[in-house]
């Protein structure tokens, strides 16, 4: 689950003082990631992505966060932008509670 993934990644980056987190929407399942250039099958669901990013954001070493690969020309109903915004909003909420 997200806790194990984050724990393993943070452990491998233990010597780093700052961690820059970049979330690529290409990792989302192709059923929901229509607004990106390289959708993948069997990718993350929106809630899984939110959980994963939220777990990372709880670590004090995270100094920067970005969401990449949203392509507005492919995002016909603004769905990809809305999903990216939901992930970002939940991440900001985690930061504000810390």
How would you explain this protein's 3D organization?
This protein is of the alpha+beta class and 98 residues long. It has three helices and two strands, in the order αβαβα. The protein has helices at residues 2-12, 46-57, 79-97; strands at residues 19-24, 62-68. Strands 1-2 form a two-stranded parallel ribbon. α1 (2-12) crosses α2 (46-57) and α2 runs parallel beside α3. It starts with a helix and ends with a helix. The model has no long low-confidence stretch (mean pLDDT 93).
SSE blueprint and pairings:
Elements lengths: L1 H11 L6 E6 L21 H12 L4 E7 L10 H19 L1
Parallel strand pairs: 1-2
Helix pairs in contact: 1-2, 2-3
Compute the gyration radius: what is it? Answer: 14 Å
- Give the fraction of residues assigned to helices: 40-55%
| Unreliable sequence segments | none
Report the major sheet. 2 strands, parallel
Element-by-element helix/strand order? HEHEH
Sheet with most strands: strand arrangement: 1-2
How many DSSP E strands?
A: 2
Shape: globular
Mean pLDDT: 93
Tell me the number of helical segments per DSSP (H or I, 4 or more residues long).
3
Distance between the ends: 22 Å
Coarse structural class: alpha+beta
Strand content: 5-15%
